[in-house]
Amino acid sequence: MSVHQTGLRVRYAETDQMGVVYYANYLVWMEVARVEFCKSVGFSYEQMEREDGILLAVAEVHCRYLYPARFDQEVTIHTSLADAHPRMVRFAYEMRLGEDGRKLAIGETKHVFCGRDLRPTRLPEKYHRNFGIG
Amino acid sequence: MSVHQTGLRVRYAETDQMGVVYYANYLVWMEVARVEFCKSVGFSYEQMEREDGILLAVAEVHCRYLYPARFDQEVTIHTSLADAHPRMVRFAYEMRLGEDGRKLAIGETKHVFCGRDLRPTRLPEKYHRNFGIG
Amino acid sequence: MSVHQTGLRVRYAETDQMGVVYYANYLVWMEVARVEFCKSVGFSYEQMEREDGILLAVAEVHCRYLYPARFDQEVTIHTSLADAHPRMVRFAYEMRLGEDGRKLAIGETKHVFCGRDLRPTRLPEKYHRNFGIG
Amino acid sequence: MSVHQTGLRVRYAETDQMGVVYYANYLVWMEVARVEFCKSVGFSYEQMEREDGILLAVAEVHCRYLYPARFDQEVTIHTSLADAHPRMVRFAYEMRLGEDGRKLAIGETKHVFCGRDLRPTRLPEKYHRNFGIG
């Protein structure tokens, strides 16, 4: 599967008093990377949610923190599709410092396709090829 | 008008690398205090939004930061209604350290009543007395 | 080991456009619960960080989301010590709706004791019994 | 004075259950824009904080919300220096939708130069010309 690369810069708001990025913010970065990944394989998450009423509810997240990121550093996130079915999808993430490629964290998220009522549903067929299903 | 008092404790997540609470988080505290204020005058913001489809969109915020709050400190927020009409409402906030009453910040928010479409609307009459509109 | 129970109420800020709590905020709740757990076993995280220069850097997090939490709901977090050594500690969390006890999420965090320079260190002996070490 | 333009894209994390960007996040955007503005006039906020121990503590913020921003929209922030003295600086912000230039919000922040102890200090002379002081 394809790997998509997203860049972002650490915001002051994302640091904590330890002087490094607060751990929950890596999950926000995963979301940013995930949205961009989806665009890179040809579909808009925003559109799927608005037009088809399909949401990607997070079912599980895992993250290992290897090296702390700091304010104003550039971070590169490599996102790939780890698994995809009509009912769920898993993404894998690798976060690195832009400057020297040092690995900051690795993570994974698992998502379930849901309707607006947040009940599990199936991904519409028209999106299957975007996720390599089928 | 009544003044409502809300207490909260500073979360690690709310600090930044300056070692104090990041400035945007005071607005989150105002929201927490506002929601509790509404309950104290007899109505549930959550219910109004869910049952009547009335939202309180923020139109304006102002905050003066007087003294920095730090991790794990108790903060007390005094909230009062500064103004209320069927179309808008203004709240005033005073944030103090729980420990010694030192003033941390003062703020104000102005809100417009909106429907789900985010267009301005009028507060239903049944809620008028909660806001002292009369 | 002891289990500590922490209560909090969902903030509007913690929701996202799906109408439920954004997934990264569960990690903030884990932090709130962890800090309270530490107090319940007799020591202050804030003090350890300030006086001894010992930080609890997060090394790993895992969270499974079972049921979505919504604005203004009360959430109860049961926190326990899953493992503790002089170099690291693991906490386990179970988050439930206050109203009916419905399980919202389960999670785990692993932490490494660090000095101010963020290099791994050993937990000072005086704190060992708080964590049931040795 | 110069006006600097910063672009960003609305994150899912920044929305709330109203379906629009939560109001406190505009202050995070101001910070992002402010940091970029500083770079554009030739100095690094990160470096000043790390090397000179000079912090820009926020003393006051004001924001007027004109139109709601939504997930995945591009936002453009125009930042300018409203005022600058050796002891304080004020920034003005104008936030617009990237797509059609619609004005989302206008804001202002006032900052006081502080040392690491968070006591007011003077901006070192070497930075004066960056802020047009003198």
Largest interface: A-C, 21 and 21 residues
User: What multimeric state do the chains show?
Assistant: homotetramer
Shape of chain A: elongated
Radius of gyration of chain A: 15 Å
Give the strand line-up of the largest sheet of chain A: 1-3-4-5-2
Distance between termini of chain A?
14 Å
Give a count of the beta strands of chain A, DSSP E runs of length 2 or more.
5
The percent of residues in helical segments of chain A reads 10-25%
Percentage of β-strand residues of chain A = 35-45%
Structure classification of chain A? alpha+beta
Q: Quick one: biggest sheet of chain A?
A: 5 strands, antiparallel
Instruction: Indicate the mean pLDDT of chain A.
Output: 95
- Note the total helix count of chain A: 2
Question: Which series of helices and strands of chain A comes N to C?
Answer: EHHEEEE
- Low-confidence runs of at least 5 consecutive residues of chain A: none
